[in-house]
Amino acid sequence: MGELQLEERGEGVLLATISNPPHGLMDDEIVDGLEALAARADRDPELTGVVLTGAHPERFVAHYDIAELLAASRAAPSVRPAAARASLGAVGALRRIPGAASALERTPAAGLSQAERFGEVLARLGSVGAVVVAAINGSAQGGGCELALACDLRLMADGPFLIGQPEILFGFPPGGGGTQRLARLLGSGPALQLCLDGGPLTPEQAKELGLVDELAPPAELVDRALALATRLARRPKAAIAGVKRAVNVGGSLPLAAGLRLERAELMSAIVSDDADAAMAAYVDGLERSGELPAYDPEALQRALEDGRFR
After folding, report:
1. 131-136 and 3-8: which strand pairing?
2. How many CB atoms lie within 10 A of CB 29?
3. What is the pLDDT of residues 230-282, one digit of tens each?
């Protein structure tokens, strides 16, 4: 069974190492750990940065446990896509009722419930008030790639590793956000090609395409990811959450709706104590120096390092 091993790294940053020997598979216990991690990032005001990496020496997360998927598919009824969408909607609504989620796991809808839950957990990572950085220490395919895509930033070890969505080779499309996040990140053409082919990318190809943001030597990867998360984690928590929701949710809406969501996030965060203090410090800096701090190179650099104007 898999687990997340958590380690405090100071300055509001947590290192979460995904462990599931011997193969480094994604399974329900890892989803449990990710769900608990997202809940903690929501409720803990001090937690503003998370780095996810893998314990396997050559894998971030290999892919979802195919044996689990096979068992779930054999227990599930045969449905057409339209019926499956309706069923997932119903299951999603039921999962919001206290106690219903565990009951669903004991019914023929267990597979639908598990798929819905995996998607919910990955979506939640994209809305919490913590910067989530994937330190992809090795190969990441299927659910491992989807977990990386759900993170805010992706650093990958430069080496003989693979990343991609091989689900079509098993006879089904990705189901944990692979098609949707790839299409939004890379465009529909590259996403379609990757998911139809099923073949993986090397780290260099993934970087060139934009699937990962940075490559690093394996020995330096986690330290670089922690340094990036530590710097970005100094931003105010409400602002981090607002930016993530505006981009991840608003970016998928029609423009007018996305703009409205963005304004709502502004109105919610601007009345926070952090925003009040940062704006007051900015006004005070202008009055003291006679120059806008955002145009003072030293003041701007301090703000970028501190995560806010002080």
Report:
1. unpaired
2. 13
3. 999 999 999 999 999 999 999 999 999 999 999 999 999 999 999 999 999 99
- The CA distances from residue 7 to 43, 133, 226, 253, in Å, are 18, 15, 12, 36
Q: What is the DSSP letter of 26?
A: B
- Say if CB 198 and CB 169 are below 8 A apart: yes
The token pair at 256 is: 């007018």
- Which pLDDT score, from 0 to 100, does residue 113 have? 61
Lookup: tokens for 111: 């597979």
Residues facing residue 131 across a β-bridge: 49
pLDDT score for 87: 59
- Return the residue matching tokens 């006879």: 171
Nearest of 61, 176, 80, 74 to residue 126 by alpha carbon = 176
Q: Distance between CA atoms of 196 and 177, rounded to whole angstroms?
A: 15
Structure tokens at 136: 């992809």
- Rounded distance, CA 225 to CA 15, Å? 10
Residue 146, SS3 per DSSP: helix
Lookup: tokens for 282: 């900015």
Q: Which two tokens stand for residue 98?
A: 């206290």
C-alpha to C-alpha distance for 36 and 33, rounded to whole angstroms:
5
Q: Give 3-state DSSP helix, strand, coil % of the chain, rounded to 5.
A: 55, 15, 30
pTM: 0.89
